[in-house]
Amino acid sequence: MHGIGRPARQLDPGEDERWLTVEQFERVLDVAGEREDVKLTFDDGNESDVEVALPRLVDRGLSAEFFPLAGRLGQRGYLDRDGLRELVRAGMEVGSHGWEPRDWRRLDDRHARRELAEAPKLLGDLCGRPVRRYSLPFGAYDGRVLARLRQAGATRVYTSDGGEARRDGWLQARTELRHDVDEKWLDGVLTASPGVYRRAGRWASRLFRRGDR
C-alpha cells in the first residue's frame, strides 16, 4: 500500500492510482485480520501511515512493515522523524525504500551508496535499530540490483511481482493495492492459484543465480 485518504501534498503524476480511500483501506484490514498468511506493507512513508493506517492497525491488533523514503522525511505530506518513531513504538517494523524514488537498475556507484547504504543507516539511527530490509522502488530490479543488495547486507527484499511468497524467502513477492481495489479483486487475489505467483519467484531466483546485468 501507499497513501490512504486525502493526500496532504501534491501527488506525482500517476501517483493517485496508488491511493486508497479510508473505506477501501478498512476493508483490506478486515480481510487481512482474518488471514494469518497475509502480510501488510506500506511504501513511501506518506503521512497517512501514521494519521490513518496506524490507529486502525492498532485497533485491530495487526502489525505491518513500513518502507519510507529517507530523503522525504519531514517534507510536506510525508512522515517526520517523530512519526517514524511512533511507528516503532507501536510495534511496527521499518525498512528502507531508498532515499528518493529512483530506479535502482540505473544507479551509478555514488547514487547506489546513497540509496542502499545511507538511506537505511539514517532510518536505523532514527529507529534505534538496524534497518536491513528493502522495498524496491517501482518494483524494478535485475541481477545487478540484487547483487548490490546482497552486498549491502539486505536480509529481505520486497518486489511488486504479485502473489504468494515463501515465509523464509529472501526475495518476497508483493501485490500492489491500487485505487480501484474492491472486494471482488481482494477475493480473487486471495483465492488465486499459488502456482501462478510462485513462477515469478522462481524467475527472480534464476536471475540472481545467473548474475544477469
Structure description:
This protein is α/β, with parallel strands linked by helices and 213 residues long. The chain contains 7 helices and 8 strands, in the order E-E-H-E-H-E-H-E-H-E-H-E-E-H-H. The strands form 3 sheets. A 3-stranded parallel beta sheet has the order 3-4-5. Strands 6-7-8 form a 3-stranded parallel beta sheet. Helix 1 (22-32) runs parallel beside helix 2 and helix 5 (143-151) packs across helix 7. Mean pLDDT is 90; it is low at 193-213.
Question: What's the structural blueprint in terms of helices and strands?
Answer:
Elements: E1 3-4, E2 19-20, H1 22-32, E3 41-44, H2 48-59, E4 65-68, H3 81-89, E5 93-94, H4 109-127, E6 133-135, H5 143-151, E7 156-158, E8 171-172, H6 183-191, H7 194-210
Helix pairs in contact: 1-2, 5-7
**Secondary structural class:** alpha/beta
Mean pLDDT: 90
Report the count of strand segments: 8
Q: Can you write the helix and strand succession as a string? A: EEHEHEHEHEHEEHH
Number of helices: 7
Task: Please tell me what the overall shape is.
Answer: globular
- Beta-strand share of residues: 5-15%
Q: Summarize the biggest pleated sheet.
A: 3 strands, parallel
Cα distance spanning the termini: 29 Å
Round the Cα radius of gyration to an integer and report it.
17 Å
Low-confidence stretches: 193-213
The helix content is 40-55%
Please give the order of strands in the largest beta sheet: 3-4-5
